[in-house]
Amino acid sequence: MKSNRLNTLTNGIVKSNPTFRLVLGTCPTLAVTTQALNGLAMGAAVTFVLLCSNVMISLLKKVIPDRVRIPAFVVIIATFVTIVQMVMKKFLPSLYDALGVFLPLIVVNCIILARAEAFASCNPVLDSALDGLGMGFGFTLSLTFIGIVREILGAGSFFGLPIGSLGNISMTIFILPAGGFLVYGTLMALVNYLTALAENRKYAPSSKKKGKKEAKA
Amino acid sequence: MSKYVVSSSPHIGNDRTVMTIMLDVLIALLPAVVGSVVFFGFYALFLEVLSVAAAVGAEALYNVITKRDQTIGDCSAVVTGLLLALNLPVSVPFYVPIIGSAFAIIFVKMLFGGIGKNFANPAIAGRIFLLLAWASMMTAYVKPITWTDGDAFVYFRCILKGREGLLDVAALSTATPLASLRTEAAGLDIFNMFFGEIGGSLGETSALLLLLGGVYLIVRRVIDWRVPVTFIGTVAVFALIYGAAKGQALDYILPSIFGGGLFLGAFFMATDYSTSPNTKLGLTVFAFGCGIITSLIRFFGSYPEGVSFAILLMNIVTPYIDKAFVPRPFGYQPKKGAKA
Fold first, then answer.
1. Which residue among B65, B107, B133 sits closest to A171, beta carbon to beta carbon?
2. Of A173, A214, A217, which has the smallest distance from its Cβ to B133's Cβ?
3. Contact predicate B279/B327, CB 8 Å
4. Cβ distance A132 to A55 under 8 Å?
5. Does B202 reside within a domain?
6. Above 50 in pLDDT, residue A217?
7. Among A residues 132-171, those touching chain B with beta carbons less than 8 Å apart
8. Which of A50, A81, A199, B142 has a C-alpha 20 to 30 A away from that of B28?
9. Nearest Cα to B125, choosing from B312, B264, B334, B324?
10. CA A116, A190, A103 angle in degrees (round to 5)?
């Protein structure tokens, strides 16, 4: 039972990472990851909403009539998004401006709705909380990762700190949407390749050496 | 016994391979390469060599890493690298062609399966990647080195200078004639635009030298005449209409044709086999689309030049053009009563 719960938690981070494996929530993924910090903030906001809404929906799963469950889910999610929005506007106004319309759009983020529908509405509270936490953490990691790559290549800085004189030769395309797709696709391929490699290794230990060599390349 | 081989079609073969086609393209590009050295000095040649080396190197490396058969022998990477270099202004630093070629080969060509399977012309996609990555570098055109800078001695000394010296001599960055075309066509030096003594990227300035190569390719039947003729013709007609609307019907035609990368694009880039339609009618539609998009971007868009964007967009539409113009098999008659 305990390892099951651990699985629920780590499921969202690697095995069904919402960004790289489930390919959910791609719109905010591509839009806000021009800087690592924005990606991190977006991920944190989504994690909070996901955790709270998963808990709430799991608590209310017996009360909510099946026919109106989607509107009910959206109302619950919207409540938490509004809270995040107000808090951010008050305490982190610059981030609030940077995330712009994508902050209120968390309401319709398909990761949150998908977890509500697929997990929270048919699982106990603790599991739902762990699932929300894991999924949110996976989302945050992916967004920060994409943000770091795009920021280094596109602006020559790391979390806003300039790296040497890299800024002089930085490639603007990686801050533009085209570069977003480019980085997203490449990282997705890389993550899937490494995951497949790790899974192969689990079953066939003899291929370990070969796999390592390829991963390095 | 061995004389009677039973095999599937095609039964008629000739000596033409991917390599001979690519070598023909390289021969056709030779005048433009010589021109780039004449106009911009040996640093231009340095950029071209670097770009070709990066393209071939990237393809070789990719094949080694993914454990595929080596494909650099078909020379297509050489053509890609050279075309990309001809699209750069001479003022770019050395790493620009390297990154551009590597991107073009790895992301646009090899990741989609190599030659014949790429969705877009690698050189075009590489150029657009560089344009979006380093917009200011990619549009920093400098004046060509001219005889009027001094006597022959001064001229040859200029040609031998590297990038820094070159930037000192040619110094003044200059706009391509296209930049002023939108507002004012009269007063552009058509003579120099034809022979190539204008600002621009390495290979695009001289319409004459590109025309030489293009005619060679058409005569050798490497490319179909329909693409360049339709492409350039469409741009000319559009310029005529645009000029007529401004009351100077004829002034816009020649600058539109000779300016920018139209000849380079129409003869060498829009004619790429794997990214253009298979039928003659399809090719005409393809080139017509290229011409329209080029003109629209040039006259109404926010970029001064639209050839590369036009070709990229039409590359993407190519599968649909092929679907729309399926040739009728010889002797085939539609069934009576069947709905068209």
1. B133
2. A173
3. yes
4. yes
5. yes
6. no
7. 169, 171
8. B142
9. B312
10. 40
Contact yes or no for B133 and A169 at CB 8 A: no
| Beta-carbon contacts below 8 Å between A and B | 20
Q: Is A215 on the interface with B (CB under 8 A)?
A: no
CA count, 13 A, side-chain hemisphere, B274: 16
Domain for residue B318, yes or no?
yes
Query: What is the largest distance, in Å, between two alpha-carbon atoms of chain B?
Result: 79
- What would the two tokens of residue A93 be? 């106004």
DSSP A35: S
| β-bridge mates for residue B173, sequence order | B142
CATH assignment at residue B114: 1.10.3430
Q: How far apart are CA A164 and CA A176, in angstroms?
A: 22
A92 near B CB under 8 A: no
> Which residues of chain B are at the A interface, by a Cβ-Cβ cutoff of 8 Å?
65, 93, 95, 99, 107, 129, 132-135
Taking 90 as the threshold, does the pLDDT of residue B317 lie above it? yes
* Residues above pLDDT 70, as percent of chain B: 85
Let me know if residue B134 belongs to a domain.
Answer: yes
Q: State the angle between helix axes of B95-103 and B76-86 in degrees (0 to 180), rounded to the nearest 10.
A: 130
A144-174: per-residue pLDDT in tens?
Answer: 999 999 999 988 888 878 877 777 788 888 9
Neighbours of A159 (CB within 10 A): 12
Q: Is residue B71 part of a domain?
A: yes
pTM of the model: 0.84
What is the Cα Rg of chain A in Å?
19
* b (16+ CB within 10 A) / e for B15-43: eeeeeebbbbbbebbebbbebbbbbbbeb
Tell which residue, A114, A128, A93, A160, has the closest CA to residue A8.
Answer: A128
Number of domain units in chain B:
1
CB contact under 8 A, B134 and A171: yes
Say how many C-beta atoms besides its own lie within 10 A of residue B256's C-beta: 27
Q: Do A174 and B133 touch (CB under 8 A)?
A: yes
Contacts for B95 with CB less than 8 Å, ≥ 6 apart? A169
Structural domain including B273 reads 18-324
- Residue A77 is encoded by which pair of tokens? 């999610």
Domain edges within chain A: 2-216
Lowest mean pLDDT among A89-98, B90-99, B131-140: B131-140
Of A124-128, B140-144, B281-285, least confident by mean pLDDT is: B140-144
Integer Cα distance of B42 and B5 in angstroms: 53
Residue bearing tokens 């490497």: B222
Output the pLDDT for position B113.
87
Is pLDDT above 60 for A188?
Answer: yes
Tokens 């670097």 -> residue: B50
Residue among B99, B107, B135 whose CB faces A172 most closely: B135
